[in-house]
Amino acid sequence: MNHLVNLDPNISQKVLKKIYLNEKKPKETDAAEQEAALLSQLSNPNILKFLDKLIDDECFCIITEYCEGGDLDQYIEKCVRAKSTISIKQTLDWFIQILLGVNYIHSQHILHRDLKSRNIFLKNGIIKIGDFGISRILAGPSDYASTFIGTPYYMSPEVLKHEGYNCKADIWSIGCILFDMCALEHPFTGESFYSIVNKIVKVEPPPLPNRYPEELSKIFNLMLKKNPAERPSARDILKMPFICQHFPKMNAECKIDGKVEAIKQRWLENHAKKKASKVKSKFH
To answer: Protein kinase domain: from which residue to which, for each copy (predicted)?
Structure first.
């Protein structure tokens, strides 16, 4: 259960996630403790900020920053009700921010394992990835998780087939979130859990709406490759020219971590050199 709290009138609002120990199974308590431990170690502009934890005989509490914009799923529902769409620029801004956050946790050898629109929060228009309760810390890049866990609409084929999987399962989930933002619906739907599973495992994903750039559609198709080995990593996607071209258009508040900032700078430098070269050739 989540509560909005304001412990000090001079300090911004916080969210207190409360789990009553006498009502929960040990696994759920362990998940909450894991979430607190993970969040306390993470520091990134696109990761929900952990502030503190409280434990007593009755409950376990996690205190995090408050995101006044709610979650992405709620935002999409509002668009559906208003019969509006999310602009291409906004979609790209948020898509890149999700990639930045996931690239960071993957660099820490952490799988999220339950990436979905409901776990993507909005604070002043900035993406904050949360709900790390079922995340897994990997022993190393070659370690594979095999626990069947997550939300059906965002599950990758290898997860549904109970095969080993690594960070590429998160990439599939981000691809599904991208489709959510573009089409305001899930890429794979069905009347039952098994019909959804069958589509995810056997059917090719639907295309993005025509109004989206072809380059974004290509990235989406790569992210939803059935074979996880064929999917790019978050870092691979952030280095793609189409994504790099969008960095200068992002709002100033969208902070970028050091490694990706270097990628952005290299692209800007190369772009400037190409423009200068074209100008020279024009006058010679």
So the answer is: 1-243
